Structures are given as C-alpha cells and as structure tokens.
Amino acid sequence: MIGVLALQGGFIEHIHALEKLGVPNFEIREMGDLEKNKPDGIILPGGESTTIGKLLHSSGLFQCIDDLIRSGVPVLGTCAGMILLAKRIVNDDRLYFQAMDISVKRNAYGRQLGSFCAVENFEGIGRIPMTFIRAPFIERIDDENVQILCRMDDHIVAARQKNMLVTSFHPELTDDLRVHQYFLDKF
Amino acid sequence: MNERYELNKNLAQMLKGGVIMDVTSPEQARIAENAGACAVMALERIPADIRAAGGVSRMSDPKMIKEIQHAVSIPVMAKVRIGHFVEAQILEAIEIDYIDESEVLSPADDLFHIDKTKFNVPFVCGAKDLGEALRRISEGASMIRTKGEPGTGDIIQAVRHMRMMMSQIRQIQNQREDELFHTAKELQVSYELVQYVHENGKLPVVNFAAGGVATPADAALMMQLGAEGVFVGSGIFKSGNPAKRAEAIVKSVTNFNNPALIAQLSEDLGEAMVGINEQEIDLLMAERGK
Known about the structure:
Pathway (chain B): Cofactor biosynthesis; pyridoxal 5'-phosphate biosynthesis
EC number (chain B): 4.3.3.6
Largest sheet of chain A: 7 strands, mixed
CATH topology of chain B: TIM Barrel
Oligomer: heterodimer
Protein name (chain B): Pyridoxal 5'-phosphate synthase subunit PdxS
Family (chain B): Belongs to the PdxS/SNZ family.
GO biological process, one term (chain B): pyridoxal phosphate biosynthetic process
Number of strands of chain A: 12
Strand content of chain A: 25-35%
Largest interface: A-B, 36 and 39 residues
Structural class of chain B: alpha/beta
Number of domains of chain A: 1
Order of helices and strands of chain A: EHEHEHHEHEEEEEEEEH
C-alpha cells in the first residue's frame, strides 16, 4: 500500500498514476489514516510547500511521517515534496523533514511565466517528458551518497538518497508512468 | 500555445485542496501565507469595501501588487475588469501568476470577454452555470470559480452556482451521444467541450468556489458540493480575528469530510464578517459578464 499525502495540491494525480499501475493506495489526510494503514511507501505531492508544511504540523502528521521516513520507508517527493525533504533551502528559512542532503532553491525558475515542459534523460529510465510548475531545483548536493538522476541545463532536477527519491518536475502530470514504476521497482 | 495552456491548467491543479485569500497589503499577504493560503489575490479593496464605496472599481496599482509579490513565496493573483485586455497586458508584464477576469470590478466591456488565448499567463474566470464556465474555457480560461456574490458573506449564491454547474454536468454525462450536439448549441460552446464533460463528468479545468465564503463550515460545504478549492475574499480580513479564521478555513478545506474537526475549528473564531443578505443588496455582481 502506498500512502499519498493528501493535505493540499496535486495528490489525486499521483493516485490516478498508481491506479493505472494497479498499485493499492490510500490518502493520508489525518492521523487516523496512518493508524488504519501501514504504508510500504509514501508520496509527497506537488502543491504549496508552505501550505502542506503548515497542515503537516497542525494535523500531527509531521512526527508520524518523519518517523516513517527515518525508519526507511521509501518516499517519493515531487516539486513541493522535494522541498519538504530537503535539509537546506537556499532562499527560505522554513524547513520541514530535513532528511535528504540536498540544498534546494524554491521557485528557482521564477513565477508562472517561467514554468515549462521538457524531455530529458533520467538515469535508469531514459528520456521522459517533464513538467515544471514554478519548480524548485537542487542547487547542490551536500553528501556523496546522493545520486544525481537528472540534470537540466546544469541544474539537478532529480536525485535519490537511501529511501528517498525527489524530482523538481511533476511525473504525475504526464501520461508517462515510468518514474512511478521506477519508484515502485527500485525502492 | 497549447503547451502554455497545459502548464497554466497544471498550476491550477497544484492549487487544489487549498484556499486563495484576498489581501490588500504585504502585511495581510504574510498573514495569509502563514495561515496556509495556497495563493493570494492582491487587490486594493476587498469586495465588501468595493460594494460599500460604490463607483468604478479597477485593476489595482501595479506597485502595490509588486510589493505583495515580494512579500510572499506563494503564487500571487490579481484582478482585471471583464474585457479589459490592457489591464491584463499590464499584469502579464509584471509577471503575475494568475489573472482573475472578475465581475467584482466594474466591467470594461459588456459584450466581449478578454481573448485569453493571446496571453501566456493563466486566467481564472467566474461562472454561475455550466454554459458560462465552458464559454470562459473556450476563450482560454485555465481555471473556473463560481461567481457567488462577492463581498456579502452570504453563501447562498455560491451554493446555487456550484449546484447548478454540478447538476448540468451530471445531466450531460447521462445524455445519449446524439443529444450532445443540441446541448452544445444550447450552451453556445463547441461540441468538443460538451463531449469532454460527457466523457469525464467534470470541467476540463480546475473548479473552485468563490463569493460569500465566511466560515470554515461554508468552505467545507462548498468542498462537499464538489469545489476543488476555495477563494475567500472579504470573509477573512473583515472578521474579528483574521489569522485564526484563515487558518481554520485552510484546515476545513483539507478536512471537509470531518465534522468533528470542523466543529473544533469553528470554536472561538471571534466575530465573522457581518455580511449582507442577497435580498438586501442592490448590485448583483454575478450578473456581470455572461
């Protein structure tokens, strides 16, 4: 069972992707959801990181999910999800799980006019379509255990470390399911 | 153009499950962001004050909008008058994240809406039924909201508009395919848009509620009726304790199916905006721009 954090943002798109892959899943909206189900993997979706971060704390979910991440449960963070997992954010002092040794820049491509689509090589998958919406990127990696999976114009837009996989872009917004499949297979 | 339109619809998708709050200063914008708003709407006067002041209401001062853009990291939206494409060009020039072509301001054109396909920035438009929603989408809107009745604190119109849209969507879903041509003619939209609704049972873009939301219960009501998120205008900064009310509405939108939690959230919020009943108002903003 994959738990998809469903506090705000594009969670339904991840659920649709999982359903297309035939993967059982559930929404994580409140503490009860994690008492009823034990996730084998967690997805932190896109949305506004400030909103999701706020709701993580007020719902009490923060500690629970933090424990799960640190216990090694696989986690996929897309866009805002990457920000939630980063140990450092270069242009913001609000930090969340601080689990992954990356320094992330928020809204790194500017405002909505800077949003774009691209096709780029993703290590271990091949060329895939990528949708960047007011996206962050990884300015630098802070530990040699972080493996870079995709670069776009000299910026890191996908990486993995231990049980964590992060992307600047939104694999859930395209019909290409290979990033989700990669997460399910390799983690 | 197509790729840009997809990206603009995508941004609205990332706002889903969130609350977009009207703010009139950088300070209010920060309060909104700290309360968990997923975006803010920058404007000089909130709808309740526009209603009270009367006169012509226009796009806000770009300087004030830019100050709000600098104050917060979440998307910043701003309003232009219906049909006023130069106001829209100005907002595009200052890189606004979303333009609201809004009936809250005085319309600049009583016949033509802005041709939104000519812009790179996204547009959200109000609608009170499915025909209006689909016509705005065919003009290039990448997000829809109910019109409701702004600045009243009275939820009845938003409820009416959301129910109308949802029931029309359900009707189209149940139609025979050969009936869709006639429906397209009646709604004055393309067959393709009606066919999309028939096949998917939803609008092709994200649909929020707006106009009259004042309490956490109002917000949850709109979510249960099918809204994918909520705009709150006057309801927050016209109330006794804006920060607390804003936070409560944000949580209520996430947990719209959890009455026990909404009960807790509704406690001790201080005074709600006073509001005006729909029978007491002279100006129906929802009648602007069809």
